[in-house]
């Protein structure tokens, strides 16, 4: 397979050299940072309720953490190893790190300006008043002192740093306070330092005393610890106390070929992660140069990877403010509609024998997905259930249903992806619980993450076994299904279910070259068939026939696929791409991509669905949905499924409902320009017209379905 891929890539490269304009690409990392800037824009926008803006600021901060843990960590490793080979955009790792630093500096400046100048004053006007140590009244100071002595002091452990006490091993992204100390008895001796690691169990934002009406005085835990740090060092004088945190390389290093027990190996690696190499230091800007240099030295971290911030650190923690019971400062409640043909759990299989069903979450309730598995678990006619898990919730009803099914004597198989980034520990827990209940737990193909979303039910009906399948674009997670937009497809069509059964057999057994007739499956044929569909549209356009591509995904990175899109644009294909996050394709370049338009939607719900439309010369268009973005990892290093949508009414909705609505959006959409910037789209009614929101349109349609 690798030989076929390299041969095809070589042919594409040769064809690209013959094109009138040389293809070029946006840098992947800078494109991702541009996406995170669009998240920050939501925190700055007064279109959103105040506490939702606070939540967006927290999301921005969490996104940036993960970016450093994985993407920047990888670039640092490459640079330190002497890798100078440039990426598709022609930029080497060292240059990328410099450009990332410059862009992150700008983003952090914007983030803290948003917090200090916009959100803090707006929160104060609504009664959420943040106090610094110097702002406390005498009554508040007394309350904070008592809180420190009763709740904080007992769990703090001061760690000296000197010749007898090595610098402590600090956990990834944990809050710490570095304290500079003078011994009055030896004034000529250089100052000492100590570290106060702050246990995660302590709340990072503390409400000072009982609230008075709607007035809630708040203080950051770091402020409390700095204020009373001297109590942990009797006899010493505190000359400085500064909060800081360290971000570490969090990528797992697993050689599956050499690992006899993958589950135990991943558990071992998870323990090692907290000791991973430091890739970022965040510290309050008030720290003096000597103390700053001392920390960098102990962490073996160049100063260029350290950020002095105007506090508070880790604005992810401000999300706790959004949990206060202030519905007037949040989005109006939205209840997903459970109005699909599957709303009666007892008739799910009866319904699917006569029709396919497509759900659009979170506008359509996730309940039918749970009902599908729970009904299969208790139905005496169901013989077997096979399901993939990439991520799920901590109290997953789907996992409980599989356990119940196994205890009811059914054959149950769960493909649990242990390497789902940042969910490894949760998935190990679920794998153990499932195994203890008698479920066959497997981990898929060596070297590939199982990222597809698929559940297959085998049911006896009369003298034959009938297969039912659920295929999705999102995880089997009822919690994220309330805020992620995804598609769920249910069918009993034998062409689809037979392919699903073949894939499960490949994942649980052996199968070097399985053949799939209807499903597009990575790493086997998804990339080849995707490029073939794009090339077919190009041929139609070149021959003067109707040709159009619409594609919706989270990221567009794969160079070969981008080249095919460039070729299609040059042939005259009209291409609309809705790419929420990273996009390495450069749109609107004359002679290269003038027929390609790229937009991103960032708003109340996280756009997570992947859907694709290929016009096919006005014949029967190819309409797909699935789990894969157009990235090398999805095409070649993961098990992914794109599935065709066959029912006419459902196909029509994808075109006229999903794509048409999102391409009209002007409220949450930004349009990508050839220079890499994202701009607000032009409103069809002119500057004074009301912005159109796809999210609001979908919610209104869901409410209408519920009423009907």
List the helices and strands and how they pair.
Blueprint: H1 2-17, H2 28-44, H3 50-80, H4 93-125, E1 128-130, H5 138-152, E2 159-161, E3 176-182, E4 192-197, E5 205-207, E6 216-220, H6 221-228, E7 237-248, H7 262-273, E8 278-284, H8 289-298, E9 306-309, H9 348-352, E10 357-361, H10 367-378, E11 382-389, H11 397-407, E12 411-416, H12 424-436, E13 440-442, E14 449-450, E15 453-461, E16 464-472, E17 484-491, H13 494-508, E18 520-522, H14 526-542, E19 548-553, H15 559-571, E20 574-579, E21 596-601, E22 606-607, E23 610-614, E24 622-626, H16 632-636, E25 638-644, H17 648-664, E26 669-672, E27 678-679, H18 694-707
Parallel strand pairs: 1-6, 8-9, 11-12, 12-13, 14-25, 17-22, 19-20, 20-21
Antiparallel strand pairs: 2-4, 3-4, 3-7, 5-6, 7-8, 10-17, 11-15, 15-16, 16-17, 18-25, 19-23, 21-26, 23-24, 24-25, 26-27
Helix pairs in contact: 1-15, 2-3, 2-4, 3-4, 10-11, 14-15
């Amino acid at each position: 397979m690798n030989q076929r891929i390299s041969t095809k890539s070589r042919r594409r490269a040769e064809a690209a050299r013959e094109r009138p304009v040389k293809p070029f690409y946006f840098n992947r990392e800078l494109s991702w940072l541009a996406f995170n800037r669009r998240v920050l824009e939501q925190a700055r926008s007064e279109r959103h309720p105040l506490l939702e803006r606070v939540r967006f600021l927290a999301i921005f901060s969490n996104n940036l953490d993960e970016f450093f843990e994985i993407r920047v960590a990888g670039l640092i490793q490459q640079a330190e190893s002497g890798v100078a080979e440039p990426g598709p955009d022609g930029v080497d790792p060292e240059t990328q790190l410099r450009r990332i630093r410059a862009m992150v500096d700008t983003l952090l400046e914007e983030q803290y300006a948003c917090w200090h100048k916009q959100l803090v004053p707006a929160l104060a006007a609504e009664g959420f008043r943040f106090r610094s140590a110097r702002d406390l009244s005498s009554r508040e100071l007394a309350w904070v002192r008592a809180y420190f002595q009763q709740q904080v002091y007992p769990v703090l452990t001061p760690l000296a740093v000197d010749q007898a006490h090595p610098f402590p091993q600090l956990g990834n992204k944990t809050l710490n306070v570095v304290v500079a100390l003078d011994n009055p008895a030896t004034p000529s001796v250089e100052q000492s330092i100590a570290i106060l690691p702050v246990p995660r169990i302590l709340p990072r934002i503390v409400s000072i005393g009982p609230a008075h009406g709607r007035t809630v005085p708040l203080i950051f835990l770091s402020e409390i610890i700095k204020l009373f740090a001297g109590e942990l060092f009797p006899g010493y004088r505190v000359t400085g106390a500064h909060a800081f945190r360290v971000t570490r390389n969090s990528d797992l290093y697993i050689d599956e070929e050499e690992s006899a027990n993958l589950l135990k190996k991943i558990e071992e690696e998870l323990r090692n992660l907290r000791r991973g190499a430091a890739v970022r230091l965040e510290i309050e800007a008030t720290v003096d140069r000597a103390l700053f240099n001392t920390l960098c030295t102990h962490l073996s971290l160049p100063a260029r990877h350290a950020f002095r911030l105007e506090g508070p650190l880790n604005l992810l923690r401000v999300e706790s403010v959004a949990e206060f019971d202030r519905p007037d400062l949040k989005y109006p409640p939205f209840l997903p509609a459970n109005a699909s043909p599957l709303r009666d759990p007892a008739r799910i299989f009866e319904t699917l024998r006569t029709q396919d069903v497509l759900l659009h979450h979170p506008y359509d309730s996730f309940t039918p997905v749970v009902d599908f598995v729970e009904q299969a678990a208790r139905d005496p006619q169901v013989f077997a259930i096979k399901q993939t898990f990439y991520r799920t919730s901590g109290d997953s009803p789907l996992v409980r249903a599989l356990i119940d099914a196994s205890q009811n004597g059914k054959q149950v198989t769960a493909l649990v992806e242990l390497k789902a980034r940042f969910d490894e520990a949760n998935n190990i827990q679920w794998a153990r619980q499932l195994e203890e209940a008698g479920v066959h737990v497997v981990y898929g193909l060596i070297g590939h993450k199982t990222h597809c979303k698929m559940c297959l039910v085998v049911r006896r009906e009369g003298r034959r076994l009938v297969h039912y399948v659920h295929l999705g674009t999102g995880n089997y997670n009822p919690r994220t299904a309330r805020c992620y937009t995804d598609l769920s497809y249910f069918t009993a069509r034998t062409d689809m279910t037979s392919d699903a059964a073949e894939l499960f057999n490949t994942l649980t057994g052996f199968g070097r070259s399985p053949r799939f007739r209807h499903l597009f499956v990575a790493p086997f044929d998804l990339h080849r068939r995707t490029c073939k569909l794009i090339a077919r549209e190009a041929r139609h356009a070149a021959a003067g026939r109707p040709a159009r591509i619409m594609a919706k995904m989270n990221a567009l990175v794969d160079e070969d696929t981008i080249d095919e899109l460039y070729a299609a644009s040059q042939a005259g294909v009209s291409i609309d791409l809705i790419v929420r996050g990273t996009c390495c394709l450069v749109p609107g370049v004359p002679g290269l991509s003038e027929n390609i338009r790229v937009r991103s939607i960032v708003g109340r719900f996280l756009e997570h669905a992947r859907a694709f439309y290929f016009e096919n010369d006005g014949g029967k268009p190819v309409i797909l949905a699935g789990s894969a973005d157009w990235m090398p990892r999805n095409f070649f290093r993961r098990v992914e499924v794109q599935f065709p949508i066959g029912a006419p009414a459902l196909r029509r909705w994808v075109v006229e409902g999903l794509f048409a609505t999102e391409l009209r959006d002007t409220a949450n959409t930004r349009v990508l320009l050839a220079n890499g910037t994202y701009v607000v789209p032009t409103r069809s009614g002119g500057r004074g017209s009301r912005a159109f929101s796809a999210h609001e349109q979908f919610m209104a349609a869901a409410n209408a379905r519920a009423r009907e």
